[in-house]
Amino acid sequence: MTRKVGNVSIFLLKAALLTTVLGSFFSGQNFFYEQTLFYFWGNYIVLLIYAVNLILVSKVFNGFGFGSNDLHEIILSWVLCLVVTNGLAYLLLSLLENRLLNIIGFLIVIAVQLVLVIPMAVIINNVYYVLHPAHKTTIIYGSEDIAREYSAIIRRHRKKFIVHYALSQDLPQEELINRIEASETVFFLDVDIPNKERLLEHCFKHEKRIYILPTFSGVLLNTADISWISNTPLFQSKSSVIDPVALFVKRCLDIFFSVLLLTALSWLMLIIWIAVRLYDRHPAVYKQRRGTKGGRGFTLYKFRSMKPDAEADGVARLSTLDDDRITPIGKFIRKTRIDELPQLVNVLTGDMSLVGPRPERPEIAKQYEEKYPGFSLRTKVKAGITGYAQIYGKYNTAPDEKLFLDIIYIEKFSIWQDVKLIFQTIKVIFIPSSTEGIPEDLETALRNR
């Protein structure tokens, strides 16, 4: 009952936040753009369009991710949400007026909305954790290495989980069940299926919240549809078959957005090219062999962020934390992802897509493939500048986790998902941790398991 009351309370607070944004927009339109007001129904149609855009954009940037995202991410989401939503409203009203409106009014509206929304977001976030206190948590693991790695991650989320037990799957089943009964949330980390089945049944029966570390089969089941043969339910995997019409639309979007971005950002690319070139008098654009669909090699273009002799020893390696091979300019363009802009040329030529698995270097991909034989399955589609692994993972995300994220993207492919990921990339640019390097004792993201 307490959880239901908490959910209703948070829903009402979210509705109040949306109402505040809508009210401030309508007030701003009345005050700054009186000439755009229509008859009664016309005004409400404009407000309805604004509301629909606001909800869609907030879903894209996960502005209502209270309880799942950190507070700074939620605030960033609302900054981007208000900028994009009001930008669309500005274009709509300008089109209706058949001229560009004075943008000052919209900038003031955005500023007022931020002053109102940010405190409300902080309040909702705090209320959420008051109404949804941290769960008593049990971790059941299959290996010590997995337990160490993921337990540290779980324990960092103190507002959500209080870890009471971290238990090996080899303990007697009755002892594990007793610990589960004393908990509200259970994590299963690399647990063998025979052990997991009975424990999962017990969790389901007693309404425990469950988190399971994914496996390849688990990822396929997550994206599968339910199919029926006679009266027997079966999971049906899509087998990564993408409709040719969808592929054609995807290619059209690639061409449209790459031309648009190359044109709009040409001034920025010129500035970066000059800055990198002047810093050490070496080429500003770095060329590197990467793999794309079907493992086919191609030449990838990036703005050079490292010293010219970064790999003078001929060993391919990823950048590390505080990597001294990265130049001062390189640190900036890597954090802001500006170094990726020349890849728009790769998209235009058809070697890459805007959205897809990140292209790996052949030498590093070979190492990953040796440990994770399914790693090459990522190349069932074209490599991309952005994608599931780039949005929901980090530069230093382990290759098996990248594989799972990329398989989810391939299995769930849709044009709407591509558009959503393109816009979510804007948000990732403002999250510095997304470009963190790997530990200095490693050359690739392979972990010592």
Protein traits:
4-stranded parallel β-sheet, alpha/beta, 449 residues, two-stranded antiparallel sheet, 54% helix, Rossmann fold, 3 domains, single chain
The H-and-E topology, N to C, reads as HHHHEHEHEHEHEEHHEEHHEHEHHH
By DSSP (H or I, 4+ residues per run), the number of helices equals: 16
Overall spatial form:
globular
What is the domain total for the residues?
3
Please compute the radius of gyration using only Cα atoms: 25 Å
- Based on secondary structure, the structural category is alpha/beta
Could you explain how this protein is built, in words?
This protein has 449 residues and is of the alpha/beta class. It has 3 domains: 2-131, no CATH class; 135-213, Response regulator (Rossmann fold, 3-Layer(aba) Sandwich), CATH 3.40.50.2300; 244-435, no CATH class. It is built from 16 helices and 10 strands. The strands form 4 sheets. The chain has a 4-stranded parallel sheet, sandwiched between helices. α1 (2-32) crosses α2, α1 (2-32) packs antiparallel against α4 (104-131) and α9 (244-264) packs across α12 (343-349). The longest helix is centred in the N-terminal third of the chain and has 31 residues, at 2-32. It is globular and about 75 Å long. The two termini are 43 Å apart. The model has no long low-confidence stretch (mean pLDDT 87).
What's this entry about, in short?
By secondary structure, this protein is α/β, with parallel strands linked by helices. The protein is built from 16 helices and ten strands. It starts with a helix and ends in a 20-residue tail after the last helix.
